Every structure is written in C-alpha cells, then in structure tokens.
Amino acid sequence: xxxxxxxxxxxxxxxxxxxxxxxxxxxxxxxxxxxxxxxxxxxxxxxxxxxxxxxxxxxxxxxxxxxxxxxxxxxxxxxxxxxxxxxxxxxxxxxxxxxxxxxxxxxxxxxxxxxxxxxxxxxxxxxxxxxxxxxxxxxxxxxxxxxxxxxxxxxxxxxxxxxxxxxxxxxxxxxxxxxxxxxxxxxxx
Length: 189
Prior knowledge:
The protein is mainly beta. The protein has helices at residues 2-18, 100-108; strands at residues 34-36, 46-54, 62-71, 75-81, 87-88, 97-98, 112-115, 118-127, 136-137, 143-152, 155-166, 170-181, 186-187.
C-alpha cells in the first residue's frame, strides 16, 4: 500500500518541478515616487506615486500611466457627497471658508466624509494608447485641489492643498495654500 503512494508521488514529482516562472514583467510606468512635506519638514504627509491602468496581457501592451498625489496614513481628504452619493474631493472654490460649525454639521449629516485618498494629477499613454504627447492633466485647469486634515502629535491641522501638473513632468507643484488648527475657520485664499 505504501509502495503505491510512493510510486504515485515519484511519478508526479517531475511534472510539479517542470513549472518555471515566466519572463519578468516589464514595468510600463517606471517611477519610484517621492514624499511631500507641506506641513512639517520632518514628516511627509503626501506621496507622489504612479500606477498603470492597462490591458490584461502580461506585460501590458497598451494603457495609461496615471500620476497621483496620495495621502499617507495620518492624512485624510475631506470629501463632499454629491446628489448621487459620489464622493468629490475637488469641490472648494477660491474664496470658500470652511467654518467649524458647517464642517461638524456636514459630517453629522453625511454631506462630508474624512477619508484617505489621492489627487489625480496627469496621465500618459503607452503602447497603442501612446499619442506622442507628454503628460496630459486630468483636470483641464491643470491643477487639483482639496481640503486635507493632517494629524500630528501636537494636534490636527486643516489645510487647502493644490497639486499642479505640467506636460513635461506630469506632476509639477504641491502647496498647502492655507493652514489652520482644527476648530478654526479655514479660508481659501
């Protein structure tokens, strides 16, 4: 009986060991990313990153490289909930003032949500999606903006942030345009 099992596994072993990994996948969007320090120069709050959206074949033959500014673990973006229930981060306009009372009411009524997230900056095609152009801004204005909450050991900060794009680099600038302690009115400059 044992001999039968031993013989079975001895015959199966060559078939199991034949499987070899395929060729290494090509990185269609080579970019290592880097940290941004808009509040505290000792600790990053955001990270410029890139990812690929492409076809299912390996390596992906066509698609887009998408560049984003993502929040790190101690940072959230303030999302407004639109009429359809979609979360929108790019809603504050110039001159807007976020008062602590309206923020508290919006959070209580589920009109606002604090969540980790990202600001979409630009994209560039590769393979058949390559148009011969450099980076294209996601937003026609050439920038994306949001309200961020940064948690620090000294307390929470609220800030209006803006990320800009450029055709040559994709990402070009990131600024905290206004910063206040949580509980104070935040004025969009």
